[in-house]
Design goal:
Elements lengths: L1 H23 L1 H12 L17 H7 L6 H11 L19 H12 L3
This protein binds heme C (HEC).
């Protein structure tokens, strides 16, 4: 009987610890997941240039820019051209929702 209760308590604490870890890494994990789910990683990588710039370079370029999330959200949604080279980025909205785009912009800016 006692052993069962002890085991139940250990299990409950374990589950609480697991869900805490999942919650605290939610934003970053979700950004990475959204980026692969929405095909961003076909043209981007975190630390090297593919067709588009490395996300780390993007994060570095806009570091300290208070408007960066709004500005990049608009670029991700409507497309971008002429910032990183001659290859344009096609629009990703409305296929990707505004809410997901904001998470993606924040995630990109946090890769640095
Ligand atoms: C077809 C290839 C392609 C896809 C798919 C793509 N990108 Fe891009 N991305 C580019 C290119 C090329 C650029 C550089 C555009 C430029 O020079 O203005 C770019 C630029 C960017 C920038 C920087 C914009 C700036 O103004 O500095 C961000 C942020 C970005 N992409 C995020 C994303 C996200 C998030 C997704 C997925 C929803 C995505 N990209 C999908 C090719 C792509």
């Amino acid at each position: 009987m006692d052993t069962k209760i002890t085991l139940a308590i250990i299990a409950a604490v374990g589950i609480a610890a697991l869900s805490f870890t999942a919650t605290s890494s939610y934003a970053a994990g979700n950004g990475a997941e959204l980026a692969s789910k929405n095909g961003c990683m076909a043209c981007h990588a975190i630390d090297k240039k593919v067709l588009g710039p490395a996300y780390k370079e993007v994060a570095k370029k806009y570091k300290g820019n208070a408007d960066a999330v709004a500005m990049l959200s608009k670029k991700i949604k409507d497309g971008s051209t002429g910032v990183w080279g001659p290859i344009p980025m096609p629009a990703n909205g409305p296929k990707v929702s505004d809410a997901d785009i904001k998470i993606l912009a924040e995630w990109v800016l946090a890769t640095n």
